[in-house]
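Batch manifest, entry 17 of 40.
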Amino acid sequence: KRRRSVGWRRGGGMLRRVCSPQIRLLHGQKNRTGRRRKDARVRANLEADGRPRTSVRPTIAVQMASPVEQFKYRVDCALQKHPVLYFAMLLAVTLSWVVVGGITWYAFKAKRSGKRERLRDTLWLAWSCVAASSTHTKEREGLNRFIALCMTLGGLASYSVFTGAASAQLKARFEQIRTMYDTPVLASNHAIIAGRNAQLPRLLEALESSQDYAKKSNPRVKRKTVLLLVEEKASELLHFLRAYKFKGLDVYCRQGSLSNALTFIQAGSENASQIVLLANSDDRYQSDSSALISVLALGNSVRKDTNLVIQTSKQSTGKLLSKLAIANVLPVRNQSPRLLVLCARQGGLAKILREMLAFHGPLINLRKYPQLDGLPYRHLRQGFDSACVVGIMRGQTPMFSPADSEILQADDTVLVLAPKQTHTSPPEALIAQAQQAREGMLDMPGNGVKVSSLLPMEKLDLGVEQILICGWRTGTVDMLVEFDKYVPKGSVATILAETPVAEREAMHERKVAGGSKSLKNLHVVHIQGNPLSETDMNKALDATEAGAQPTASQKKSLTVLTISNHDWIAGDAISSGDDKRTIFSALLAESIVQQKQIENFSILAEVVSQDIIEEMERSHPSCQYLSTVELQALFTAQVLEHRELLPVWEELTDEYGSEIYVKNIRYFAELGQPITFRDLEEVAFKYGQTAIGYRWRNRLYLNPTPKTTPIVFQEGDALVVIAEHGGTYKPALSASELALQADVLADA
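Output type: structure tokens
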């Protein structure tokens, strides 16, 4: 049968072996059977190796792909692997158009006119049409016009794309060189600010103010260079900061990973005198972990005398970072919850803090006076006519309002409240008194100020407090803890926010339940609603009034606090959109409180923009406005310029240390009777407090000069003091003075 089906056939000048269709089918079946057996053996080997069982033969799409599709796939892979091939391909296509057009013109003109033109001339003509689209209009003959038009269209499809891509690549490369860390920074003693949040503009403005004061004292001071390091959108940030027009600073921007050591090395961290790591996330844990990674990235590339300021959310994080870094780590905690509580309880405290932290007003200066060694503190605090001595710092411990008998040592630092760059040397009279004190010839001056007719502080009783907080964020629980330290037992705090109550209660239980943060005096009520709704605001105020009822002898006290939804307002939110919401909520609360005829109330709105605060203070001064972002930025700038101020301000903002209080003037002076600020200082010091200014006729005066000018105070005026244990009011008087005061008060 095989012999019958197979034969030889002559054709095409040769013999060919011919097989019948049945024989060809039989051979195909055998071949397919062999392939199946081979595939089965391969699959068995794969299963023996532990690999998944997959099909060995290629898919139908790969088998049926045409050569053109395979070529496209190869080209795509090559372009992704080698991006430079894109420009090479466009250049090759452009040159191909030139060569084809030049040869076509060369052949056509030779055939048409009978004389040959030089090939280089036709190639140049083709290149002109490809490079300049207007060249084809100069041709006169119809066929020449057609060829020139084809060359022009080809040039638009290849050469124009090539030049556009090259221009874009060059622009991107120059932008990368300008913003990325490709070129090292060659500046010295510059400042590096790594990260981005809403405090950045205010921080730069504070540094510019400090630089202006430095130039006034020394005109040879050079302009300060500030380098901003961000992880993304560096060009947008630089464009945004150009609107501020910093005259005393040279602000540059670089882009790079803040967890990469190369970023800080290229930024010149070895030559920088100041480095700031801003909190770049509203999530406190993510922000602290990012700061930790940045400190590890800095490593040994920081000088030991460099001020490394790191914004943290907790004190424990600052201690951890201090152990890891080599430079002088200055951890700055997020003080927003405490600042909000203090300013909400004391009217006008926000302006005082802003005035003392800004470089243009009176601030706490650190002065070394070794020539005053041996001088008693009473002579020291009475020896400055244009400054207020608020205390001394011995080592790293600040001492506010020390005893008059405290002797000043040569290595002590005097805390002087005065304008910046002033009182660098002590008065000559104090130097002479210090010499007499060392010789044992100095007498202690007396104090003839009477306090018999003043209101006793220890009899102050405000009663339970009613607090309404509009808004919710992760730091709200910390605000409740701070309120609990000041309010009497039985006070109530109502929280009105759109956040679900279950989520708020879970966070509250996780942070406050048990331990040192357990609430002892404050009862918390959660209400879900919109702070912009009048109905929800009425409901929240009714719940607040029903939760805490004062006695008949106590006054009803209500505090309304409208807060932002972010802690740091980090990332791209340079100007927060919460300002409109907090201001509207504060004005709505004021309107409802006035309708309810509540007399003793205070309303504080947290605002990000200082411009909005100034506008609202002019148009609607009945409410208080506080920018925790601005205060935190000013505090960071103060610590960055003077590292010794960190323990001073930590003492003033810590619940266990001295604080700034705005107290009723009736505790220190008689209403309607003239009194000098020097006498007010002495009266305040009898109560263990230091007077630094006063509020008179709704205007604030810090470090008033001259101190001997008589002032007549009226109801509503206040004295600004630095005191410890502001709720106890224990007077720092001697036994004889206490007995004398008790007798006089009894006679009165």
